[in-house]
Amino acid sequence: MLHDRVLVDPETDRSERQSSAGLVIPATATGPKRLAWATVVAKGEHVRQVAVGDRVLYDPEDRAEVDLGGTDYVLLRERDVHAVAERSDDAGTTGLYL
């Protein structure tokens, strides 16, 4: 990886969702623009805020896809990462930091 690039493995959850009101939203429904989660697989030498293995939030519309060894990955710049999830050792829940 070069410079400020981050290679991530996107989470593919195409199952049905449920709204806060209890309505079931089918996987085929298109709605407002949503951010997606992914796991960092590799990073460039100038990446400072993200580590390999971190779970990051990014915009799936602004991405470059690459196929390596039959697996689809997404190539991002570090500035395209919106948030990084950090595991909390206390309760086992996930918190966010920017």
TrEMBL record:
Domain of life: Bacteria
SMART domains: Cpn10 (SM00883)
Signal peptide interval: none
Keyword entries, A-Z: Chaperone
Region spans: Disordered: 1-24
Gene3D superfamilies: GroES chaperonin
Family (UniProt): Belongs to the GroES chaperonin family.
UniProt name for this protein: Chaperonin GroES
Matching InterPro entries: Chaperonin_GroES, Chaperonin_GroES_sf, GroES-like_sf
Chain intervals with Basic and acidic residues compositional bias: 1-17
